[in-house]
Structures are given as structure tokens and as C-alpha cells.
Amino acid sequence: MANTSNRNNRPTEQFSRLGFIMAAIGSSVGLGNMWKFPYITGENGGAAFFLLFIVCLVLVGLPVLLAELAIGRSGRASAASAFTRLGGGPLWRGAGLLQVLTPFLILSFYIIVVGWTFHYSILAFSGRLFATSDFGGQFDGFITSYWPIFWQVVAMIAIAWVIAKGVSSGIEKFNKVLLPIMAGLLVLLMVRSITLPGASEGIAFFLRPDFSVLTPESALVALGHAFFSLSLGMGILMTYGAYVDQRQPLGTATVAIGIGDLIYALIAGLIIFPTTFSFGIAPDEGPRLVFIALPAAFSAMPLGWLFGGLFFVLLAIAAITSAVSILEVPVAFAKEQWGWSRTRSAWTVAAICFAFGMPLGLSNGIMPGLVIGERTLFDWIDFITANILLPLMGLLITIFAGFRWKAAAESTGLSQGWLRLWLLALRYVAPILMLLVLLYTSGVLAF
Predict the structure, then answer these.
(1) Fewest Cβ atoms nearer than 10 Å: which of 152, 170, 243, 323?
(2) What is the pLDDT of residue 7?
(3) What is the DSSP string of 62-83?
(4) From CA 434, how far away is CA 392, in angstroms rounded?
(5) 142-176 b/e with 16+ CB inside 10 Å = b?
């Protein structure tokens, strides 16, 4: 495929208006809201935490989201170059490179979990998932075998193929096909969950707030997840912004993406909590909830093999739409930096990311020597990216768009009233809160 950049290395590929919104929603509706959101909500009291998450989404998530899109569209470059093309100095070049390194590191372990969802989809539909009652042993046996490497290869090939097809012919078409399927599965599984016997307790837990259970730590967790669920700080929306038509209203797109993310989180909660309460499963089971606790619930449910299979297909779709978005960031950088074609960039970056990620998958059991302290290599990369790099990048984005970039205000296309609110949130609310999240998640601040 021919290089799709002009001689100034500025992207010439472009999303349609609807295609951009769907691709951005696809990047946000990943494993975060279907896997992480339910268990952190369960650990922090349910409905009150969900409301806190919504507040954080509005106060911090959307302002930073709009800033990323504006930087990307105005810079018309990869995430590594957008800051400097808008007047940032050498230090901002370093921040841009972090915007490329971060998604590369995230994808190296995220693609492993994508592979888990593929494996569990097949296990559920084949009936082998429910052939045992020891779901914890089944999961541990799987992740400590070589099978995750096989599924890691399958998942990486799939997303590299999509990226190699291009922005409109690959990413946009991919999301236009999979997002409606995902929406249908979400509604079907939600209806099944809320009609289970005893589901009302789970619905009440998720939708009837008890603010007495909230702590200062809950607020920072909600803030961090609002940031993570929108794919902020990963360079994704900055990269996608470079493919957005100059006439597309960024404010409207920002709200649409935020609403899509929120609806997904709401339905995810209405799938997970009614199911767990109906079968007597604690809602605070932690990260293993999806792969261990929920299979136990599906095994006791009429047609559980079908609904369990559909659930893991849903999880796989959500995971792979996000993975495609993550891979596009270093691919865009490779095209810009070395003048490679999209095809060469996609397959080369995917191969390097797979090679880097293989030891992470093996560190879960096959190679116990790949454990440093109390964490595996998989856990360390997860910790560093989620708890240090992402909040750090969020903080830098607010500083750049709020104070360094002089044309930030006019680039958004907002009316004067909304523009004042956006600048207030971006300059004074978001930076302080993002700094608190960074200090908390890195372990500097404790309660």
C-alpha cells in the first residue's frame, strides 16, 4: 500500500463524521467498562460510586477528551509530533514520544487479555467451560499454559490486518460492523440479566446510591477510571483527531463519545450485578470476576452455555475494538517517522509489540523467574501504564492545552459560554484532580 502521508508527513487519510465518532466510541468501550468497571464499582459500594464516576466523566474526562481531539486535529500529525507542531518546545517532543510509548506498552499486555476473551468464547460455546465446577482452577490452568501465546498471535494478526487496511477502509468499517453487533449483544444480555430471579437486589446495588460507603479513595478511583474508560492519555484520540474533518464540530463529537461510554458502563453494570446477585456471587470479587465468578453463574443458568458464549463474544468485540485503536498510535508514528507504508508499519509494529509482550504472558506462570518483587512482568507493565503514565499524560495534556497552546480556544469551535466552562475545567479543575490521581495511583498519596 502506498504511503498515505503528504511530503510534510501530514496525514491525508480521513474518517467520515459518523465513522470518527464510532471509532472513538469503539476505542473507549473496551475491557475497562466490562471487566474493570464492575469490580471497582463492587469494591466501592455500587450506585454511589457510579454517580461519582459520572461526575468525574463530566468534570475531567470530557474536557481532556476535547483537548486531545483539538490538539490532534490542529497538529495533523502523529501523537509524537502534535505538541511541537503547535508550538511546544523540545520538552513537549518528549511528551509526544511518551504518547506513543504508552499505548505500545499497554497493547503488549492488553492483547494477552484480548486472547483470553477469544479462548473463553470458544470454551463457552463448545460446552467445555462448564464441564467443571472448578472455574478458578480452569482459569489458572489456562493462563499458566502456552495457549495464551497462541491466542495472543491470533488477536495481534486480527488487529494488524484491520490497521493495514487503512483509516476509512479498515478502522472505520471495522467499527461500523462490530459496534452494532456489540450493541445488540449488550441489550440481549441486559434483558436476560435483569429478568433473573433475585436480580432486583443487583439492580438496587447498582442504581440505588448509599453515599455513606464512599471514601476519598473512592473519588480518586472513580476519577482514574473516568479517564481510563475514555482512552485518554494514550495518544488514541490525538491520533484520531488528525483524521477528523476540519468542519466536524468537536464539542458535539466529545459529548457523543462521552454518552456512548456512559451508556456502555451502565449496561455493563446491569449485566454484571443482577447476574452476580442472582447467583449469590460477591460483587467485589476483583479482576477475576469475569473469568471465574461469572462462568459459575452462567453454569447455573438455563441456556447458560449460550448466554455465557454471547457474553464472552461481547467481551471479545469490546476488547478488539479498543486494541485496534491502541495499535494505530505507534503505527501512525512509524509512518510519519520513517516514511513507511501503512501495511509495513502495521505488521512491523504488531510483530515488535508481540515479541515484547510474549514474556509478559509467560510471566503469569510458565516462567516464574519473570517476577519482580510481588508482581509479574504482566502486572508491572499494567501498573506502570495505568498508574503512572496515563495520569501523567493527562496532566501534561491539560497543561499544554490550557496554558501553552495559544490557539486552543479557537480550535474547539465552542460558543463563548461553553468555551469559558471548558477553559475553567481544563486550567483549574482537571490539572489539580489529575495530579491527585497521579500521586494516589503511584503510591505517593495514601489514605
Answers:
(1) 170
(2) 39
(3) HHHHHHHHHHHHHHTS-TTTHH
(4) 8
(5) bbeeeebbebbeebbebbbbbbbbbbeebbbbbbe
CB 15 within 8 Å of CB 172: yes
Instruction: Count Cα atoms within 13 angstroms, Cβ side, for 30.
Output: 26
Q: Calculate the CA 40 to chain-centre distance.
A: 15
Pairing of β 371-372 and β 375-376: antiparallel
The three three-digit cell numbers of residue 352, written as one number = 515488535
**Assigned CATH class of 17-441:** mainly alpha
Taking the CA atoms of the chain, what radius of gyration do you get in angstroms? 21
- What pTM, to 2 d.p., does this model score? 0.92
Q: Which position has the grid cell 498508574?
A: 387
Residues 42, 48, 52, 55: what is their CA dihedral angle, to the nearest 10 degrees? 130
Per-residue pLDDT reduced to its tens digit, 92-149? 999 999 999 999 999 999 999 999 999 999 999 988 998 888 888 999 899 888 899 9
Per-residue pLDDT at 21: 92
Helix, strand, coil percentages, rounded to 5, for the chain: 75, 0, 25
pLDDT in tens, 175-211: 999 999 999 999 999 999 999 999 999 999 999 888 8
The pLDDT > 70 percentage for the chain reads: 95
6-23 burial code (b ≥16 CB/10 A, e <16): eeebebebbbeeebbbbb
1-18: pLDDT as tens digits: 334 444 344 556 899 999
Q: Are 364 and 378 in contact (CB under 8 A)?
A: yes
Check if the beta carbon of residue 257 is closer than 8 Å to that of residue 232: no
Closest CA to 266 of 72, 25, 41: 41
Report angle CA 120, 124, 129 to the nearest 5 degrees: 85
How far apart are the C-alpha atoms of 144 and 141, rounded to whole Å? 5
